[in-house]
Write a structure and sequence with these properties.
Elements (H helix, E strand, L loop, with lengths): L1 E2 L6 H12 L6 E4 L5 E6 L3 E6 L4 E7 L1 E6 L2 E6 L2 E5 L5 E6 L6 E7 L2 H8 L14 H4 L2 E5 L2 H12 L4 H20 L4 H5 L7 H14 L7 H7 L4 H12 L3 H18 L5 H7 L5 H12 L3 H4 L14
Parallel strand pairs: 1-7
Antiparallel strand pairs: 2-3, 3-10, 4-9, 5-8, 5-10, 6-7, 6-9, 8-11
Length: about 300
């Protein structure tokens, strides 16, 4: 299934691209004076590769990205933004060139801010039924137009003025997140706050797998913590992520291990142990199967000027 989006008028996109370009120092994710806001750039094409984003919004104003989740293809090119309600491993392809680089912005969403702003949004959310394919996947592309486009432009504009960034930056971040909650995929974010709903309870299990990835968590223990039967937990988890809980844990472990290797902070056996593998040979096999290269190939391969992105 391929998801296509309409594109807003190009004048605003060009204006925002120039705003971002002024503050980009290198390819990858560039931190800004605002803690939760990063600017994104790529002057080359990146082939399809495994990745995971932290919960947040990823805006693209020039170039394009394609996300692949099982049989679902999510296109978020210039004039679109990705709503990432939960950290979901997926594969991503990036389109950019020296003359027409990919340019965008990534905004992390703090849970406490999400809860505060969602209280002002009056929308119904699904109940505790089995999640359906049409509204389950915690990531979706949305057209960057109307109120949220205006809010993002105001946020980027204050980066040119340090005093405005200091005085107004947080308020403009709140405005962007608020408009995303009122947008077409705002329900993905709002459902996380419904503590009795299956969506939120699976979200809690995903957060546990993401933060305790090196621990030997079992499906039965995750189900118990989610207050669900094992069969119900497994069914909801797979509907939401398109993979099983153990597959999710494996992918998070491998992505974390790649971070250690790329940043040259660990050797292969050390990375395997750090993420919970007891067998270095099993780790190497699974790493090569997932990334297409042996772990030793990735060790120390990060460019000197590339920061660690919100995608880890």
């Amino acid at each position: 299934m391929v998801e296509q989006m309409t594109t807003p008028e190009p004048t605003r996109l060009h204006r925002m691209a120039r705003m971002i370009e002024r503050h980009v120092r290198h390819d990858g994710f560039n931190e800004t004076a605002l803690d939760s806001l990063s600017l994104v750039a790529s002057h080359c094409r990146r082939e399809r590769e495994p990745i995971v984003y932290e919960p947040g919004l990823v805006f693209i104003v020039q170039g394009g990205k394609i996300g692949f989740v099982d049989d679902r293809v999510i296109r978020y090119g210039a004039g679109h933004y990705l709503v990432q309600a939960m950290p979901l491993p997926f594969e991503c392809e990036t389109s950019g060139s020296p003359d027409q680089p990919l340019l965008g912005a990534a905004l992390r969403i703090a849970p406490e801010l999400l809860a505060e702003l969602a209280g002002a949004v009056s929308r119904e959310t699904p109940d505790n039924r089995l999640i359906h394919d049409d509204d389950a996947l915690p990531m979706a592309a949305v057209t960057l137009d109307g109120a949220i486009g205006d809010a993002l432009e105001r946020l980027l504009d204050c980066l040119d003025d340090p005093e405005a960034a200091k005085a107004l930056g947080q308020a403009r971040i709140r405005e962007v997140i608020f408009e995303s909650l009122r947008g077409p995929q705002g329900h993905l974010l709002r459902q996380l706050l419904q503590s009795q709903g299956a969506y939120a309870r699976i979200g809690g299990a995903i957060e546990m797998l993401r933060t305790e990835y090196a621990s030997p968590l079992s499906v039965s223990s995750l189900a118990a913590r989610a207050h669900m039967s094992v069969s119900s937990f497994h069914a909801h988890f797979k509907q939401l992520t398109r993979i099983s809980p153990l597959q999710y844990q494996k992918r998070i472990r491998l992505l974390k291990a790649r971070d250690l290797l790329v940043q040259n902070t660990s050797n292969v056996s050390g990375a395997a142990s750090a993420v919970g593998y007891q067998s270095a040979s099993q780790f190497s096999r699974e790493y090569k199967r997932y990334f297409g290269v042996a772990p030793a190939y990735d060790r120390g391969s990060a460019p000197d000027d590339e920061d660690t992105p919100i995608a880890s």
